[in-house]
Design a protein that fits this description.
- This protein is α/β, with parallel strands linked by helices and 388 residues long.
- It contains five helices and 18 strands.
- The strands form two sheets. Strands 1-4-6-8-10-12-14-16-18 form a nine-stranded mixed β-sheet, covered by helices on one side. Strands 2-3-5-7-9-11-13-15-17 form a nine-stranded mixed β-sheet, covered by helices on one side.
- Pfam families: SUFBD_core.
């Protein structure tokens, strides 16, 4: 079955404004104007030319690695790399430019049958925004391996990137990306995962920092029984633009997916965008999928856009649905807490933590979960008096 599915992936193109035709050639992707469906929410003027022709030859960053026992994490020249192993083809100009400009690929390889006790952590720290740079990351999980990979971003940078993830049959991988950039950073990243037979991917996106962060995350399947969980937590402050675009392409029968993102916003012109889409192809009988996005608007002047989509080409499925909510504090929750002697300020903190808790506890990396709770507390500390 997997060979048939792979052939179909190469031959079939979905006619949809949500899925532009991919190409490795930069010139096949016109400079976006903001009128295109996939760019209409993005503040193009703040991308520092990543979507146009700004050189991507900057080198003002460092990379530190803590690899789990048995896991290899090395940078290799493009010519010697396994780039393209996920089957990904760039679907926008920034992605195509980053693909063309990258001179090396950072490859993380989890060997077949390896079960790691500790996460592999990659930390990229930028030291300047003047010269844009391009990166490429490839994570490969061998058959029946179990591993956790955490990629952390910090400092100042103008960064265009492609990330590929490949799970062989029976692999279980948790991939966590932590966007903890400085306030002046711009990051545009395309991430694509290919999931093998009976493999399981948990992809967690934590987005806290940066001036503009636009992350496009997609997944498809090359065998039955594959499972994908896309989880996300984001917190936008005044002036920040945080954009997440999710696409699950059910290309095999009896696969499952669950997408759940939660975000909070505070401050003037804080803006978050969440675009979710699940495509259920004709071949994908017996699949089960659900996508959900919830936003908590903490102050006036903040805006959340949330657009869930489902495209269904077969009715022979176990389940498919989507949901989206955007709102302010639940006054009943506040009243309940205050009626039990909790001060209003503390009650508001508890409501925010409760809002995020369901996703945070599913990350599965205790140290990261604790760090995220602390980061949310720090975000609230400055503004809680103005929340309401």
């Amino acid at each position: 079955m997997s060979t048939t599915i792979a052939d179909a992936l190469e031959l079939e193109h979905v006619e949809s404004h949500l899925h532009p035709e991919g190409s490795f050639e930069v010139d096949d992707h016109p400079v976006p104007t903001g009128l295109e469906e996939i760019w209409r929410f993005t503040p193009l003027k703040r991308l520092r030319g990543l979507h146009q022709d700004a050189p991507l030859d900057g080198a003002a960053f460092t990379v530190d690695v803590e690899a789990a026992d048995g896991v290899t994490a090395v940078s290799v020249p493009v010519a010697d790399s396994a780039r393209g192993a996920s089957g990904y083809v760039p679907v926008d100009r920034v992605s195509a430019r980053a693909w063309q400009a990258a001179t090396s690929v950072f490859e993380i390889t989890v060997p077949k049958d390896l079960v790691t006790e500790t996460p592999t952590v990659v930390r990229l720290t930028g030291s300047g925004v003047e010269h844009a740079a391009a990166g490429h990351l490839l994570v490969r999980a061998g058959a029946f391996s179990h591993a956790v990979v955490v990629v952390e971003y910090a400092g100042s940078a103008t960064w265009a990137e492609n990330i590929e993830v490949v799970l062989d049959d029976g692999a279980q991988l948790t991939l966590v990306t932590v966007q903890d950039w400085a306030d002046d950073a711009v990051h545009v990243v395309s991430q694509h995962s290919r999931v093998g037979r009976d493999a399981s991917l948990k992809h967690v996106a934590v987005t806290l920092g940066g001036d503009v962060v636009r992350a496009s995350t997609s997944a498809d399947y090359v065998g039955t029984g594959g499972s994908v969980d896309l989880l996300g937590v984001y917190f936008a402050d005044a002036g920040q633009h945080l954009e997440h675009r999710l696409f699950v392409d059910h290309t095999a029968p009896k696969t499952r997916s669950n997408v759940e993102y939660k975000g909070a916003l505070q401050g003037q012109d804080a803006h978050t965008v969440w675009i979710g889409n699940v495509l259920i192809r004709k071949v994908a009988e017996g699949i089960d999928t659900f996508e959900q996005n919830d936003n908590l608007v903490l102050t006036d002047g903040a805006k959340a856009d949330s657009v869930p989509n489902l495209e269904i080409e077969t009715g022979e499925i176990d389940g498919a649905g989507h949901a989206s909510t955007t709102g302010r504090f639940d006054d009943q929750h506040l009243f309940y807490l205050q009626s039990r002697g909790i001060e209003e300020e503390e009650a508001r903190r508890l409501v925010v933590h409760g809002f995020f808790n369901d996703v945070i506890r599913r990350i599965g990396v205790p140290a990261l979960q604790e760090r995220l709770v602390e980061a949310i507390e720090d975000e609230l500390a400055e503004h809680v008096g103005r929340i309401g």
